[in-house]
Specification:
254 residues; alpha+beta; six-stranded antiparallel sheet; elongated
């Protein structure tokens, strides 16, 4: 102990005189990690928050209240369910998704898929298929720029003329029921409790980090994994229609 005290006493003037330089030296590894993490986040592209350092810090702060295990379906079983939530709006029973779940970026926003992305030659087909749902149901649905994604993705949305303000929607984007991410083909949608459980059980999606936690996102606001082939584009469209029926409180969607 005496040796340590003597050492501190000897170098104390030097430490005090150069404390700013020493602090900067100690901060360099931390700064490097933050910079690398920022670059990884920035490379995902723009989303619903500013695509700059302010947005990066914002999503980092939100991560402190986020759902830690977004694949844990048990958290849904403790929710109160409305009569609408007890219904399924799927046309047919979902098949099991083949393969392991894709890797998802560890950021709140943008919430993006990193592996098993939609093949480039199918991106247009996916976009057209989702738009076709709106065109086939023009008395109730339309395609609008997604407010959840800062206007940078197409969103299946309820017509303003028939929209009713209810608990099914996100306050930030009240008419939006389903949107796709053009860069890699994943999507987000709001589903009935019954359908959300089915989607997660069958391996087609997972919760958003803020589902039921913040920004008015419902517990059943899910990420839907990107389709890997034409058959899976059909599955995504089936899920988009289910989200639309739920948003329309049971109204038919063809």
């Amino acid at each position: 102990m005496a040796i340590v005290s003597a050492y501190v006493a000897k170098y104390r003037p030097y430490i005090i005189q150069n404390r700013m330089y020493l602090a900067a030296l100690l901060a360099l590894p931390i700064a490097r990690e933050v910079y690398m993490d920022y670059c990884a986040w920035y490379s995902l592209g723009a989303g619903g928050i500013p695509h700059n350092f302010v947005g990066f810090v914002t999503q980092w702060l939100l991560s402190w209240i986020a759902v830690k295990d977004t694949k844990n379906i048990t958290s849904l079983f403790f929710l109160d369910r409305t009569e609408l939530d007890k219904q399924s709006f799927l046309e047919t029973e979902l098949p099991e998704r083949v393969g392991i779940a894709p890797e998802v970026a560890p950021y709140i926003s943008p919430h993006r898929q990193l592996t098993d992305k939609c093949p480039a030659d199918l991106e247009k087909s996916l976009d057209e298929a989702v738009r076709k749902i709106a065109f086939g149901n023009e008395s109730s649905l339309e395609i609008l720029p997604s407010l959840m994604e800062g206007g940078k993705s197409p969103a299946l949305s309820i017509l303003d003329s028939i929209y009713t303000d209810n608990h099914l929607h996100v306050a930030r984007a009240p008419r939006e029921v389903f949107h796709i991410h053009c860069a890699e083909g994943s999507a987000h949608g709001i589903f009935s409790w019954t359908d959300a459980v089915m989607i997660m059980e069958k391996g087609w999606g997972q919760m958003h980090g803020l589902s039921g936690r913040a920004l008015g996102l419902p517990h059943t606001y899910l990420m839907i994994y990107a389709p890997r082939n034409k058959e899976e584009i059909g599955i995504v469209c089936t899920l988009a229609k289910a989200a639309a029926r739920y948003g329309l409180e049971g109204k038919a969607v063809s």
